[in-house]
Specification:
The chain is an alpha+beta fold and 118 residues long. The protein is 34% helix and 29% strand. The chain has helices at residues 3-24, 36-40, 75-87; strands at 43-51, 57-60, 93-102, 105-112, 115-117. A hairpin with a 5-residue loop joins β1 and β2.
């Protein structure tokens, strides 16, 4: 094969792969990206404040209670962590607000008296 044919084939393959990758990561209605990890995952972005038994308030970082490397946190997992923090006596109650990003789009979320409310 001549050099120009190889160059044309390489360019065509590169452009084809680039187009495939771009369309593979475009948004679909109601979904995050097409990659399966993104379209099935539920992300929680939330700000929490814990009230201790003596009435003091302090910020609560729920991600410090997940295993290292974990970043995907849905409402049921958040509720489990809140239950643990209140039942262990660390906090009397936890309140906050944030958003849930999932296959259903973006929803507002609140935590009232240590209960997740969507």
């Amino acid at each position: 094969m001549s050099t120009s044919v190889l160059s044309a084939v390489q360019t065509a393959i590169t452009l084809g792969l680039t187009a495939w990758m771009i369309t593979g990561f475009t948004r679909l209605p109601g979904r995050w990206l097409r990659w399966k990890m993104f379209c099935r995952a539920t992300f929680t972005i939330i700000t929490l404040t814990g009230t201790t038994k003596d009435g003091r308030t302090e910020p609560v970082n729920v991600y410090s209670h997940l295993s290292p490397g974990s970043f995907i946190l849905g409402p049921p997992q958040l509720q489990t962590i809140l239950d643990h923090l209140t039942s262990s006596g660390r906090y009397d109650r936890i309140d906050g607000h944030g958003r849930v990003l999932s296959t259903r789009g973006e929803q507002t979320m609140e935590v009232r008296d240590s209960r997740v409310v969507l």
